[in-house]
Sequence to fold (484 residues):
Amino acid sequence: MVSSSESQPLIKDSAPPKRPIQEIPGSYGLPFIGAIRDRLDYFYNQGRDNFFKIRMDKYKSTVFRSNMPPGPFMASNPRVVVLLDGASFPVLFDVSKVEKRDVFTGTYMPSTSLTGGYRVCSYLDPSESQHAKIKDLLFYLLRTRRDFFIPEFHNTFKTLFDDLETELTQKGKSDFNALNDKYSFEYLAQAYFGVNPADSKLGTSGPNTAALWLLFQLHPLMTLGLPKFLEDLLLHTFHLPPFIVKPGYKKLYDFFYSSASSLLDEAEKMGLKRDEACHNILFASVFNSYGGVKVLFPVILKWIGLAGEDLHKELVKEIRSAVKSDGAVTLSTIEKMPLTKSAVYEALRMEPPVMFQYGKAKKDLIIENHEAAFEIKKGEMIFGFQPFATKDPKIFENAEEYNGSRFVGEGEKLIKHVLWSNGFETDDPTVDNKQCPGKDFVVLMGRLLVVELFLRYDTFKADMSTQLLGPLVTFTSVTKATDS
Fold:
């Protein structure tokens, strides 16, 4: 394991590299054919993680060249330089060195017809004037609604766990993901805007409408289990036509336009057009926030569930003691729960909800991993696969193992290297960078989920499997809280 100083991004333009410069290994293969071959390997022949592991082992390097899906005909240039370690990866956070324009989803960009004709904030580089205005608006939303985050979470997820117990009684099992999809959508609407979607014209259709809209943007990165060549043609070769989801998107837009009226007033004061602001609020709420917790909450439950009863007992002890002492769940109470914080960060490390980061080199660069330095030319696309960078064995001991207490005590220093938010975790999002504006809110939601779970239960058991872009968690039993 290296010290934190040894695992910093080594990309200083003014200083020579500390390690010998090597040619970046790897090949893109023949035009068109090489990209198709790599796409089939990625999705079907090898699978995502093995795709990277096989090449890392072949080239004996965590930095190499490859094509990234989807390739033809959705991406004009699928060629990237791959980064798979925690030392080289942070170059992707430095917007003085990489351009983040239109690279949010990778080497392809979904049609702006899916976002009202606008390139929303996630696709803007900080050098573009609208970026600062929109990100400021999102900061304003988070700042003005923060007092509602904890009480609304309790109200919503209490009902979720009520439903979960009912399903366990009736069926002997409960699909947490399905409940999470329903109640997380409701929670975010309540937390952000003080509105229950079920009481609006959107009704209860929000989660399914949102999921379909998300599919139309992310299908180039998904597999659905269809026959290989049919699925590759359907999902990975051409964009699904946006007009199919236009009516559903209009329903979502109308919901946010009416629910966020005061926020839209503020947006106009900031110099944003009302409709552009609304499309950005919708994207931030549905794609970034809702899409994130659709993956994150099952990830947290998966790893805490697999860790077993010993960790559950320690979490129960810490959480109930803090809440009993303070008499309620508050921000200060949550800060008295270091193990809970660590358990959430360790889940984020093991399985970051955002797995990919991209950036295009703004100039000739030298980057370094732990062993060597590499030259990247201006205009080349750089790609980082976060689950490998956050499990870098030269930064984290037993990096492939979930350790709920990893970040307790002295280990808290390593939180910096949990890179899920498009920045070091100890950095703050600003209008000048591309770090997630809701970084701290996302972590807070994860900690609140664990708090609600173990205030209510002593332990739980669940079956774990995989679906689309994340884990599927099916509860099979819960043990109600007993006096300790």
In short: Confidence is low (pLDDT under 50) at residues 1-14.
